[in-house]
Amino acid sequence: MIDALRLAFGTLTAYPVPAPTTVAAPVPGRAMALAPLAGVVPGGAGWLVAFAGLRLGLAPLVVAVLVVAVFALSTRALHLDGLADTADGFTASYNRDRALDVMRRGDSGPAGVVMVVIVLMLQVTTLDQVLVTARAHHAGGWSGDLLAALAVVTVAVTARLAIPVICRTGVPPARPEGLGAMVAGAVGNPLLTSSMIGSLVIATLTGRAAGLAWWAGPVAVLVTVVATEVLVRRAVRRLGGITGDVIGAGVEIGVAAALLALVVTS
C-alpha cells in the first residue's frame, strides 16, 4: 500500500514523493484506486488559494481563475496535456494507428487547443457560480469563506474518480507500452467500489460543509462517472483502448462535469 500511495501521489501530482520500490501488480491498480485521495493535494492547495482570495476581497470569478491555475500547477498541467492530445487524436483520422501517432506527438493541434479553452472556460465560470452559491449559505467572515472554499476540495476529489473508472477491469490499453498499458484494467471491482464510496463520502461531507445541498456531492459523483464512461467508450471505439492521455482528459472533463453538477443542484 505504501508503494501504491507513492505511485498515486508521484504520478498524479507535481509534489515530490519517494519513488515506489516496485510498480508490479497489484501496485498500479491500488494506486489508480487511490486517485481521489491524491486529489486532496490539488484540492487542498486550491482551497487555501480560494480562501485567501475571498478574504482579500477578490471577485469569485478571479478566485475561480486562480484555483483552476493551481489545479494545473499541482499536476504540471499533465491532465490538460492529456485533454489536448486526446482531442487531437479523436479528430485526426478514423485510422486507429494514425490517431495514436498524433496523440504521441508533443504539439497540440487546433482541436486540442479549442478543447482546452472550452473546458477551462467551463471550469472557471461554473466554479465562480459554485463559490457565489456557497458563500451565500454562510454568514460571512473568515469562517464562512473558509467553509465556502471547501467546494474546491469537493471538485478535486470527485474529478479524480474518473481515473479508477477509466482503469477498471475490462478496459484494454490502446498501446502495449506507456502509462495506459501499465494501469489499464488494473482496478478490480472491489477497488473501484471502495474508491467510489470514498469519493462519495468526501464529496458529500465537503460539499455540505461548503454550504451546498446535501445531494450536490452525490450528484457530482454520478455525473462524473457518467461523463467518464462516455469518454471510455469513445476511446475504446476509436483507439482500441485507453492511453495515459485519455486518463488526463478524464480528469479535466471530470472537473467540468462535477462543477456543472454542483451548479445545477445548488
Quick structural overview:
The chain has 266 residues and is mostly helical. It has 15 helices and no strands.
What does this 3D model show about the protein?
This protein is an all-alpha fold. It has helices at 2-12, 27-33, 35-38, 40-55, 60-74, 78-92, 96-104, 110-136, 141-148, 151-159, 162-166, 179-183, 189-210, 216-239, 244-265. The longest helix is centred in the middle third of the chain and has 27 residues, at 110-136. The N and C termini lie far apart (37 Å). Belongs to the CobS family. The chain crosses the membrane at residues 48-73, 108-126, 146-167, 179-206, 212-232, 244-264.
**What is the rounded Rg?**
18 Å
Q: Which percent range describes the beta-strand content?
A: under 5%
> Would you tell me the structural class of the helices and strands?
mainly alpha
Low-confidence stretches: none
Principal-axes shape call:
globular
Please count the helical segments: 15
- How far is the first residue's CA from the last residue's CA? 37 Å
Tell me the major beta sheet: none
Keywords, please?
mainly alpha; 75% helix; 266 residues; globular
Layout of strands and helices, then pairs:
Elements: H1 2-12, H2 27-33, H3 35-38, H4 40-55, H5 60-74, H6 78-92, H7 96-104, H8 110-136, H9 141-148, H10 151-159, H11 162-166, H12 179-183, H13 189-210, H14 216-239, H15 244-265
Helix pairs in contact: 1-2, 4-5, 4-9, 4-10, 5-8, 6-7, 6-8, 6-15, 8-9, 8-15, 10-13, 10-14, 10-15, 13-14, 14-15
Membrane topology: Multi-pass membrane protein
Enzyme class: transferase
Organism: Kineosporia corallincola
